Amino acid sequence: MTKFENITIEKKANVYFEGKVTSRTILFEDGTKKTLGVMQPGEYEFSTSFKEEMDITAGHLEYKLQGEDWKTIDGQGVFYVPANETFQVKANSVVDYCCSYIGE
């Protein structure tokens, strides 16, 4: 999916790591929520409350889920993070992403 229709966008940005990671929340008519964001090059650790689908739409990213080895996405790819877990990422370039919250 390359575009979303019939959505509401929250005006205030989500800003993390001193502005190196930012996103905007979008809300759908059915109550689902996603964030569209950008990561500047760097290493970051995130925590989840809900299962997340991380859809990388551009950039070079390495990610590590708990108990797993590092994996790489170069360009485009998707990975899933279980609820209530911490995961690490290394953005080796500017990374464009869409995060979908599953089961919220």
UniProtKB/TrEMBL annotation:
HAMAP family xref list: Nucleos_phosphorylase_PpnP
EC number, UniProt record: 2.4.2.1, 2.4.2.2
Highest taxon listed in the record's lineage: Bacteria
Record's catalysed reaction(s): guanosine + phosphate = alpha-D-ribose 1-phosphate + guanine; a purine D-ribonucleoside + phosphate = a purine nucleobase + alpha-D-ribose 1-phosphate; xanthosine + phosphate = alpha-D-ribose 1-phosphate + xanthine; thymidine + phosphate = 2-deoxy-alpha-D-ribose 1-phosphate + thymine
Signal peptide (from-to): none
CDD domains: cupin_PpnP-like
Species this protein is from: Metabacillus endolithicus
Pfam family, one: Ppnp
Keyword Glycosyltransferase: yes
Name of the protein: Pyrimidine/purine nucleoside phosphorylase
Keywords from the UniProt entry: Glycosyltransferase, Transferase
Enzyme class: transferase
